[in-house]
Hints:
The protein has two domains: 21-99, Alpha-Beta Plaits (2-Layer Sandwich), CATH 3.30.70; 130-233, Pectate Lyase C-like (3 Solenoid). It contains two helices and 15 strands. It has helices at 29-42, 63-75, and strands at residues 21-23, 52-55, 80-84, 98-99, 130-132, 141-144, 149-151, 160-163, 167-173, 176-179, 189-194, 198-201, 204-207, 220-225, 228-233. Strands 5-7-9-11-14-15 form a six-stranded mixed sheet, with no helix packed on it. The protein starts with 20 loop residues before the first strand and ends with a strand. The model is unreliable at 104-123 (pLDDT under 50).
Amino acid sequence: MTITAPPRTSIRFRGRSFLALVLAPEAPVEGWLEQFDAWAAESPGFFIGRPVVLDVTGLELDKAALAKLVSDLNERTVRIMGIEGSDPGTCGLGLPPSLSGGREKAVADVLDAQSAIAQKAPPRKSNDPLVIEGAVRSGQVIIHPEGDVIVTGSVGSGAEIVAGGSIHVYGTLRGRAIAGTTGDAKARIFCRKFEAELMAIDGLYKTADSMRPELRSHAVQAWLEGDAIIMAAMN
C-alpha cells in the first residue's frame, strides 16, 4: 500500500510593526538604576507585559556590562526585546538582538481586552482627537499616538491615557496621564479634579509624591517649562 504525502504548503512570512517603550539609561548606570528604582516604587507594575527596547547610545558598554544591565532590568520585571545603540558585536548569545532604524512613536500598550471603548470609536484621521465618552475603568489603557485624547468622564486608579498630543479629562483623573509621547513638548494635561498617580509630558515624569498636595481635588493643568513639569490650579 502506497501512502502519498500531502503537498507541502509554502512558508509564509509577514511584516508587522509593534510599538515599544524605549529606556535610555545615563551614565553612571548605577546612579541611573537608583533613580529608576525610586520612580518604579511610585508606579509598580508599569513595565509588566510591555515590550521594551534598551537604548545604550553613548554608554560604551562592553558585553559583560551590557549583560549585567539587562539582567538588572530583568530583576525589575523589565523585559528587553532588543538593544539599540550598541556595537552589533557586543550583542551575542544570551542577549537581546541589536536593533537599528527605529523611529519615535508613542509609549504604548494594548487596550484592555475587556474594553470596547476604542474598538467602537468611529474611523478618524490620525491627528484628530480621540474622544472617549464616559469613564475609563481601572486597568484600561487608552492610546492615541498622533493627537489629543479627550475623556468626558473620569479616569480610574490604575488606568492609563497615552496621547501624542494633550490630554483632557472632564472628570477626576486618578490614573496615569502620559502626553506628548511623540516629542510634543507643547502638549498639556488638563483635568477637572486632580488625583493623578503619575503625569508625564514628552518623556518627563512626575509621580504622586512629587506633586503639590494643595492641588489635590482641584481643577489642574500641567505643562513643560524647560526640563520641568509645571502644575497649576485652573480658576
